[in-house]
Specification:
This protein is of the alpha+beta class and about 140 residues long. Helix content is about 25%, strand content about 30%. It has a single domain, classed as 2-Layer Sandwich (Heat Shock Protein 90), CATH 3.30.565. A five-stranded antiparallel sheet has the order 1-2-3-5-4. The two termini are about 20 Å apart. InterPro entries: Anti-sigma-factor_SerPK, HATPase_C_sf, HATPase_dom.
């Protein structure tokens, strides 16, 4: 699989564009990437310039997805969404599909990343409470 590196505005229209640009990757990778992009639209701001990177990792079927935005402040957290809520499930999905995920802060912003093992079977969405990713702590930067 080829690596993908894109600079793009985080807009609702960019979500399907990103999904299309990742057409060679499987569903889990595309879903995680678009959920991370959507979080920037919702929590940093529509039109924020982001850097999206998807790379194959050593080992079969492993990919790392990174979305970097210029706002080093707001830290993503996994929270439970009410059954009737129309949003609030993005990081729940990422946490369920990814082997691990985390946030790296830098002077020019932050990178939210996850590592996906493709073809590992169905995700366990289980109960999620505030503070952790499906009961798991946020992974430390590699």
């Amino acid at each position: 699989m080829r690596d993908v590196e894109l600079h793009m505005p985080a807009t609702p229209k960019a979500v399907p564009e990103l999904r299309h640009r990742l057409h060679g990757y499987d569903y889990d990778v595309r879903l995680c990437a678009t959920e991370l992009l959507t979080n920037v639209v919702e929590h940093v701001g529509d039109g924020t310039t982001v850097y999206v990177r998807v790379v194959d990792l050593s080992g079969p079927g492993r990919a790392r997805i990174e979305v970097t935005d210029p706002d080093p402040r707001g830290m993503p957290t996994v929270l439970s969404a009410a059954e009737t809520a129309e949003c609030g499930r993005g990081l729940v999905l990422v946490a369920a599909l990814a082997e691990r995920w985390g946030v790296e802060r830098g002077p020019g912003g932050k990178t939210v990343w996850c590592e996906v093992v493709r073809g590992r079977g169905a995700a366990d969405f289980g109960e999620v409470e505030g503070g952790g990713a499906a009961g798991r702590p946020i992974a430390a930067a590699p």
